[in-house]
Amino acid sequence: MTNSIAATPMARPFAKSSISFSRIAIYVTLFGAAAVYLIPLVVMLLTSFKTPDDIRTGNLLSWPQVVDGIGWIKAWDIVGGYFWNSVKITVPAVLISTFIGAMNGYVLSMWRFRGSELFFGLLLFGCFLPFQTVLLPASFTLGKLGLANTTAGLVLIHVVYGMAFTTLFFRNFYVSIPDALVKAARLDGAGFFTIFGRILLPMSVPIIMVCLIWQFTQIWNDFLFGVVFASGDAQPITVALNNLVNTSTGAKEYNVDMAAAMIAGLPTLLVYIVAGKYFLRGLTAGAVKG
Amino acid sequence: MAVLSKASPFDTLQRWLPKLVVAPSMLLILVGFYGYILWTFILSFTNSSFMPSYKWVGVQQYVRLLDNDRWWVASKNLVVFGGMFIAISLVLGVFLAVLLDQRIRKEGFIRTIYLYPMALSMIVTGTAWKWLLNPGLGLDKMLRDWGWEGFRLDWLVDQERVVYCLVIAAVWQASGFVMAMFLAGLRGVDQSIIRAAQVDGASLPTIYLRIVLPSLRPVFFSAFMILAHISIKSFDLVAAMTAGGPGYSSDLPAMFMYSFTFSRGQMGIGSASAMLMLGAILTILVPYLYSELRNKRHD
Amino acid sequence: MNAINRLAAVISLASLFPLSALAADAPAESKGTVEVVHWWTSGGEAKAIDVLRKLVEKDGYTWKDSAVAGGGGAAAMTVLKTRAVSGNPPSAAQIKGPDLQDWGALGLLTELDDVSKANNWDKLLSKTVANTMKYDDHYVAVPVNIHRVNWLWINPVAMKKAGIDKAPTTLDELFAAAEKFKAAGLIPLAHGGQPWQDSTVFEDLVLSIMGAEGYTKAFIEQDEDTLTSPKMTEVFKALKKLQGYMDPDGTGQDWNLEAAKVINGKAGMQIMGDWAKSEWSAAGKKAGTDFECVPFPGTQGSFTYNIDSLAMFKLSAKNNTPGNIAAQNEVAKIILEPEFQYVFNQNKGSIPVRDDLDMTKFDSCGQAAMADFKAADKAGTLKPSMAHNMATSLAVQGAIFDVVTNFMSDKNADPAKAGAQMASAIKAAL
Description:
heterotrimer, B: MetI-like fold, flat, C: D-Maltodextrin-Binding Protein, domain 2, four-stranded mixed β-sheet, 12 strands, 51% helix
């Protein structure tokens, strides 16, 4: 059921009149809005292929006088080395936090116990904690664990502060699944993990996709934790990007800045473009049903 | 039933298993969220300056904070920014979702365009918009180059209007995501209800306003939660786009807290501001959370 | 204090925790590793620090680079604090003037007695510089360079075009020149409206109008009577007047983009420290012919300094090996050696920290700065820059920044009240 919904919308009320003024208006509005959403990306792309002189003289949307790849080459030289660091941080953090979210969501929806609602409430409120407040105590804790300024420590931090959202996603998804399924399995003597593995996991694909995409975007784009909890050669690409874009002295090469920003944003952009439809399917399948 | 009452070690394990599974998370949350909040709470009553110290000074830091003009500017900005950001994103998201739900060709393509800003980090977004809105460099210059001589877009350097620039960039980033959530919600609406209403002679806008959208209340809830979450934490965006300027007219509480705690060596005031922020979130959010979650149980 | 000591004790205990072994990462063949947290990330600076890296590596040590740009070192400060709390500080970090005292008071910095004695630092460095680097009478940091803040940069071609025959030496001449630039259709004053830039202009005006003594009273002693005096009103009036000549598109702009406007002749002048020279050099311009540097009008004979320095941390237990300590000392030694001083300062636009070097290798601005530095040091007009965090604590500096930058962005601000606002803001920050 979930697969068909997003792909083929059912007959919609407006669609009855085949071609009319309102349909044209709808298309114009939608494509107009799309153009506006695209402007920043287009500007960044155009700028990344210009020469510094061209940037100074031309305007934002002018076509590069000469398409110049030097910006990308320079940018890759500077931030490219950090790309792999980001992968090493993001992949484990995403997988672990998604797994924990699935387990928590499963318990909070199917195996409620006294205090489980309170736990959920505490978790929800925790989402709103500004992360700047936790920097000092968290680094103190990591120091105690001997994980200060290690990739493992950074992954741990991402898991802890990503958990609230992943749990929320899975819990909301599983809440919409009838209890009867699980109850029947329990009467048959199926255990905690058997029920999860045999019944829930196979239906969880949409929500797992949502969770993976969401977490991947959050963690890949993170700057604050990366700059504080990683160091030296292990810094993620966002820190390298910031070092490039945010310097206060020296000649500004906007083509390099923009190319570096594109490089840093490429993986998440790709994920959205390639897996975007799974994201919508997952949302449809229940992630948003409060 | 008989199985449960036997209480063999295996069954005991089964009964405890759910709790065991969430126990590590619970521990992490108690330490990583509430332990650290408690620590910040304690610091807000101390004279911590450059680094944490534990000399008790009572509510002095709160007094100084409330005396600080910059804090009030930041708080007012959050109300304006958060309010406009949430409202515009919701309206725009719903509007686009409803339009996109009319059997549009190339829907997937358009959807992806609306959604892609969410994929970019706030640092990239902020940098790009800083450039676009820069008078003399960005859109301002472009429109004048194109012959619109009198055009002047200088909100970014205008003390009164700079906060709207933040709203523009933030809406651009998040509204596509809201659209996706509502589109997903619309796809789940039972078509027979709509047809029944049409048979009764209700017009389409009426159907959407009266029947379809009210049934999406849980989606509103989720969207509101996510947008509120983004607006309270909008730190990277301000840092990259305005750094709080001109003057400190586009400061936000998260920014205020960060700069007092870390760059200004006034950790006590920074902690006090964090506590006030959390307090404000608590008073607004908890009643909403409570009523929404309670309603749902009645459904 | 007691609490701080306790914290320090916990921190050092924490670092003994066995899991620490997991984090060890020094390659076995290296003689020792030195990790440096700094924010020298832009073109000329990055090149300059790379020189240090190469010199250190040539001697067989490993250099671990932890660059953190942003907010004039604010981001690096956050990183340093969290690392200190986690018990895993870097070997060395870019820390400035008064902050050294705070870090020293926490007991986190290591004393450089051996290197400083062996290399005779007390002889090499001027007393002002040496004292800034010391905590409790021991060197805890190495000075890298000396920047002069009170400079005015002028494009001579633009000056000729506007019909100005000589660089301004008084405030009145400055305003007259600005008026002429304006009449010629140029931006008189390139200026980026970021808090630190606003305050750089402000402190120059204080020095110009109130003199070196008034500067000391206002910023170092933070004397309330001075801050609320009529002279201070005059300063704010001049600031407002000067603002009328500033680039209207400059709000929130980086200083180097504004410098570019002077370089390509769109603007006439810029008030900026000597790091601005790196922009001119990068554009292939020569001091004296393509651009002029003069002391900010009315501040001739005074010298506001901004010294960059690397502080050395006590190493955590797992890093505390003889090799790593040797690496730390090696860095400290190399920084003061002529080879590094020449290259680094020529790249940065600053002057060397030791006064026995051959200045003919520097351009006319560098030579003038060195001469003025020595003269000001003797005359007692060598003053720490407030805007660059050499004169006050960060809290006080932040309070001053808030008042100045708010005064500049508020069109209806009253110069007569600003001084009193500053005095009360400073009091609240103490």
